[in-house]
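Lab notebook, bench 4. We co-purified these components, and the gel suggests they stay together. Before we commit to crystallization screens, I want a quick structural picture of the whole thing.
Request: model the full complex, all chains together.
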Amino acid sequence: MTDDELLDELARMWTDADPVPPGLVDDVLAGLAAAGVGDDVELFALLDPAGTTVAVRAGEPAAALRFSRYGLEMLVRVTVDGDRRRLDGWLAPGGPGTAVLRSGAVELSAPIEETGRFEFPEAAAGSAVLEVRLPADGGRARRVATPSFLL
Amino acid sequence: MMHPMTAPRAVRPPAGDDVWDRAAELFTAWYDGRPTAMDELVRTLTPVLWQVARGCRLPAEDAADVVQHAWLALVGHAGSIQDPRSVGAWLVTTVRRESIRRTAAGGRTVGAEDAVLDRWADPAPPAEDVALAGVETRRLWQAVRTLSARCQELLRVVAFDRRPDYALLSARLGMPVGSIGPTRGRCLAKLRTALGEVPA
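Here is the predicted assembly.
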């Protein structure tokens, strides 16, 4: 057996032993759909309290999430009320602009005030993507979306 | 911002050599306005990207996350990919870079000794939990498990990417770039020896 053949066998073995999780492809497709494939959408990175980029984890909804993307910072606080979620957000620098919250087929939008404040008082629990749309203000218009996170 | 590219043909999934050609076709079709081509592209390459992330000893949850991010990044950078044939390599490189960054950020010592590597949470399920089809595959699995953690990691990377970025691997495995090739050879030789010792 040549080295390449042996490595082919190893690749097959690892594919059998540690296969891709069944839901991953669907999660990727859902994430792409939510982020608006084909549009020029930038992606926020999630920061931990020390300001380091971290992974968005599946599991319990986080009480507060901090995101950043070139020149923008966003704090999102989630309050759980049964199966409803209240989402309070602060964007810096502030608005005007529009915040759009997508979870599944449902899309909610809320204005971003000049102070950067926005809110979704009645969001559904589950996986969601939050996008901010900022109009061209001397520069170009921007659309920046978070990775999907759990509400 | 494009990462330096590994030649796409060096990245070899187990499913056959035409996967990267297929990926290039699908990416072109999607870029030319057929949205469903992206779905097919995701289905085609996600299993390979998963192996790349897991090969960096990333826990399952993080591996899934890194793969998702890579796809979102691809869509965000689609316009900067000049040659559709490089789309597979772009994704593999993006996944590996982020995986390595995360394992390093997780407090694990990059460049650790084998003994330290061995103490890391092993991302592969224990042998007894793996329902591997075929006697040969089970023999291979047993033989691989006798190798050092460093050998297992190196072989897993190389199995899915025949010409990986040696500079990235060097930092990751704590060995000079020049010794990766010889180490790969030694690991394969040890594997052949171990295979000879595992009862058929």
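Chain B has one domain: 8-197. Worth comparing against the SEC data before the next meeting. Chain B has a mean pLDDT of 75.
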